[in-house]
Amino acid sequence: MSNMEDNSSRVQEELQAFFGEANAMRSLLILLLSIAAAFLLSKIVAFIIVKIARFVATISDSSPDTEKQVRLRRIETYLSVTIAAVRAVIVGVFAFYAWNLLSEGATVGAAAIGASAFFVVLAGGTVGMILRDITAGAAMIIEGWFNVGDYIDVEPFDKLSGVVERMTLRSTKIRSLSGEVIWIHNQYMQSVRVTPTGHRTIAVDIFVNNQAVGKTLIEKVIATIPVGTLKVIKKPEIATKEKWGDYLWLFTVVAETAPGREWLMEDYFIDSLKELNERRRGPQTIVRPPIARYADPAAERSFKRAVRMANKK
């Protein structure tokens, strides 16, 4: 009789062990399938959003309307942020349901508490840094610091600049003019300098004592300036010509350069003018060193307003 009882208990133990292993395998399979499904779905959704963002970027880059470009870049920025948010939501939902299936007999509230506890334990070492990034990213997006497609300089880092290719609540992806890809945590951006139009307008003031000769010298140097997307965006031109006294004229040459290519006007253009002036036989035509300055219309309007306010005081 005792032998039969021993056999029966042994069988029960083996069955329990078998079903326990089966439940463990089932739980592991559910977990793996949930991870795979969350990863696949997040990839599909991200791919769709990226396609929409690229379509918006194409329209933005081809639009001649500056205000429309800003609006479209803002939409592109929101889409970029949406990718990370959607991925987080998908992973969270799948994690919740996976935990619910693994916790048989548990209530939905208990499953949520368990999943939350698991997340806190897993992310305990990094959640503080992530929250600081998210807070900084959300503030920058709400305040509209910059958009995807803008050229920015990031402070307090030396020479950290480039075009914003992607922005999330946690980080920002920048591509420098040398082709390097830079990722920076949002919490480390203390300030940014933005070139919203994608180019910088530079004016060069040139004083000459002979109008005809001075114009010839300027036009010769203008003919040597390279034009292109990452050079001078359009050919420099003589914007104004003013007479200063009986024997002095002021020529102002204006050009639009890509960020980082200001030296084409500040150095190359001015040095070439000086060289032509020195090589010319006879009296010197350029009577003063040419002066290079930024000529952004929006900045000039702001400075004029500041000057009027100062005069009133």
The low-confidence parts are none
How far from one another are the termini?
A: 112 Å
The biggest sheet amounts to: 5 strands, antiparallel
The share of residues in helices is: 55-70%
Shape: elongated
Q: Count structural domains.
A: 3
Give me the strand/helix succession: HHHHEEEEEEHEEHEH
Q: If strands are numbered along the chain, what order do they take across the biggest sheet?
A: 4-3-2-1-5
How many whole angstroms does the radius of gyration measure?
33 Å
Which structural class should the secondary elements be placed in? alpha+beta
* Proportion of strand residues: 15-25%
Report the count of strand segments: 9
Mean of all residue-level pLDDT scores: 75
Your description of this structure?
The chain starts with a helix and ends with a helix. Helix 1 (2-62) runs antiparallel to helix 2, helix 2 packs across helix 3 and helix 5 (211-222) packs across helix 6 (263-279). The protein is built from 7 helices and 9 strands; from the N terminus they run H-H-H-H-E-E-E-E-E-E-H-E-E-H-E-H. It is of the alpha+beta class and 313 residues long. A hairpin with a 5-residue loop joins strand 3 and strand 4. The chain folds into 3 domains: 2-123, no CATH class; 140-195, SH3 type barrels, CATH 2.30.30.60; 200-312, Alpha-Beta Plaits (2-Layer Sandwich), CATH 3.30.70.1710. It has a 5-stranded antiparallel β-sheet with strand order 4-3-2-1-5. It has helices at 2-62, 66-102, 108-123, 127-143, 211-222, 263-279, 297-312; strands at residues 151-155, 161-167, 171-175, 181-185, 191-195, 200-208, 232-243, 249-257, 291-294. The mean pLDDT is 75.
